[in-house]
Design brief:
Helix 3 packs across helix 14 and helix 12 packs antiparallel against helix 15. This protein has 15 helices and 13 strands. It starts with a helix and ends with a helix. Helix 8 links the parallel strand 7 and strand 8 (about 185-190). The protein folds into 2 domains: about 35-120 and about 275-350, D-Maltodextrin-Binding Protein, domain 2; about 120-270, 3-Layer(aba) Sandwich (D-Maltodextrin-Binding Protein, domain 2), CATH 3.40.190. It is an alpha+beta fold and about 350 residues long. The strands form 5 sheets. Strands 3, 4, 5 and 13 form a 4-stranded antiparallel sheet that branches. A 3-stranded antiparallel sheet has the order 9-6-10. It has a two-stranded parallel ribbon with strand order 1-2.
């Protein structure tokens, strides 16, 4: 009888040892729940969003994920790819600007979390000196030939306004508004590379010439041309938006906007949330990534500061990597909390 008990006890002990996971291995597995998985990450084709993408990339890597390549894509290409599973995610979604793409990815991909909530303003600006001298306050003031001609840089009598490049949803919105505010015949929209066009605009401003441009925040442009000091926001008398955004007029009326003559400011364009968008199946299979995307956020002021560094020449891949690493180090307690939640989500999924 004792022999049988000893044999049974030894067998159970052997079995438990066979199935046991060493404590060190378990801890390692929990620390790197993404080990062995590659994230197919994209980033937008506007460089003011690249640093945020680098921050998230480094956080994914801390969880063991392989993010060796980040692909630069236009909006339409990304949303098609993420819906099909050819891309897993990006953190450069702009909503409601990119609402029209949702029909293409709903059910297969989803918005999740917020890089920056409600902090992304957009609109039209002109230099303050010209605004004050000619009492220019509204986009519709460009209906007057003499006002439009002030911003003519090509000699055709039309205002030359920096707009958005093809493929950016803001290009469609701006064209719609120029038409519906009755200024399309008096405005030529520059849709070339945005950074180069704004560099030319900054040079014109420094030479004392009138400037007019579309921009968004956070962006280096409003660091170089400061609203209220160098430039002012043009308002609209009535918000007119394409059908897909027609219910967002209230979001285009923004309080406490520096550089606007009225409060609230009738911006004409709704404030946006900067949001990650990810493939739904990928999120289901990777709860650690899902947790990170839900919890991570970056203050708009920090994005402004980095964009200014980038505009001043610190814009190489090595610079972005260094800046992201520095930001993570400066927010280590918060980052540790995000990583802890992500690891817990992965562990809970396994149990």
């Amino acid at each position: 009888m004792h022999s049988i008990l000893r044999t049974t006890t030894m067998a159970l002990a052997a079995a438990s040892m066979a199935f046991a996971v060493p404590a060190g291995a378990a801890a390692k597995d929990n620390a790197k729940p993404g080990e062995g998985t590659t994230i197919k990450m994209a980033r937008a084709n506007w460089d003011t969003g690249w640093w945020q993408a680098e921050v998230y990339k480094q956080l994914f890597q801390k969880l063991g994920y392989d993010v060796s390549r980040v692909t630069t894509l236009q909006n339409a290409a990304f949303y098609q790819a993420v819906a099909q599973g050819d891309m897993d995610l990006w953190v450069n979604g702009w909503f409601p600007n990119q609402n029209p793409f949702e029909d293409n990815f709903n059910g297969r991909a989803q918005n999740i979390g917020y890089v920056a909530k409600g902090g992304a303003l957009q609109g039209y600006l002109i230099d303050k000196k010209t605004a004050d001298k000619y009492d220019i306050k509204y986009v519709s003031d460009l209906q007057k030939d003499k006002i439009a001609k002030l911003f003519d840089s090509t000699g055709d009598g039309k205002a030359n306004m920096v707009s958005c490049p093809p493929g950016w949803e803001c290009q469609n919105i701006i064209e719609y508004q120029m038409k519906h505010y009755g200024v399309a015949d008096n405005v030529d929209l520059s849709t070339a590379g945005y950074a180069a066009a704004m560099a030319d605009t900054l040079a014109r401003f420094k030479n004392g010439k009138p400037v007019i441009f579309y921009t968004w925040t956070p962006n280096w442009t409003v660091g170089e041309l400061k609203p209220g000091k160098d430039v002012v926001w043009l308002q609209v008398k009535e918000t007119k938006l394409p059908k897909a955004q027609s219910d967002l007029a209230d979001a285009a009326k923004v309080k406490n906007v520096t550089g606007c003559s009225d409060d609230p400011c009738m911006m004409g364009l709704p404030a946006n949330d900067i949001r990650p968008v990810a493939n739904t199946k990928f999120l289901k299979d990777n709860p650690a990534v899902k947790s990170l995307l839900q919890n991570v956020s970056i203050p708009v002021e920090d994005i402004f500061a980095q964009n200014a560094k980038m505009n001043n020449g610190a814009d190489s891949p090595q610079d972005l990597e260094k800046q992201a690493k520095q930001w993570i180090g400066d927010h280590q307690d918060e980052v540790d909390g995000w990583l802890k939640q992500a690891r817990s989500a992965a562990a809970d999924n396994k149990s």
